Amino acid sequence: MHQQKRQPELVEGNLPVFVFPTELLFYADDQSTHKQVLTLYNPYEFALKFKVLCTTPNKYVVADAAGAVKPQCCVDIVIRHRDVRSCHYGVIDKFRLQVSEQSQRKALGRKEVVATLLPSAKEQQKEEEEKRIKEHLTESLFFEQSFQPGKNRTVSSGPSLLTVFLGVVCIAALMLPTLGDVESLVPLYLHLSVNQKLVAAYILGKCFKGALGH
User: Fold this and answer.
1) Which keywords does this chain's UniProt record carry (predicted)?
2) Residues 38, 90 share a domain
3) Does residue 21 have a cis bond before it (omega within 30 degrees)?
4) Domain ranges, residue 168
5) Does pTM top 0.90 for this prediction?
6) Is residue 26 located within the same domain as residue 95?
């Protein structure tokens, strides 16, 4: 007699949650950044319901803070900053996305996304450029010291170049527009399907897990 295949028991809190991006930056001098979009991916074969929580809900408006995601699909969650004041500059707020099966109430997984309000995009770009220059100088000094003749140094192992490359490619794929996005200025051949983005999100999660395992 043919037995019905049972779905494995899902442990509370252990289900990986795929959200992009994982950091939201709002700029006071750029009104176009006051609205941000979080994309929640569901690469699983069962539907998920989700809920968005925030440490400072009075500062944000979250459209569709609760809902459902069909199997192997994704949903966009729009977040608007409604309290753009100088007293909030640099303050780190947190959003938590909780997911569960539609037939259950327990949270199978959760993911935190940080949000920060900054005064100016130009100032932030300048700081990032200065940071990159400092990092470049530090790396140059490190390699000069590491490969001096007659000195043996042990270099700690980190993520492989392949892992880093795959991570960068997956991030770039997630940033590309989705098929059907008619308002995008990106050429049509660079538009990706939802399934392709789900694969990229899954690989990106594996890359991060592998990097943390070193």
Assistant:
1) Endoplasmic reticulum, Golgi apparatus, Membrane, Transmembrane, Transmembrane helix
2) yes
3) yes
4) 160-173+193-213
5) no
6) yes
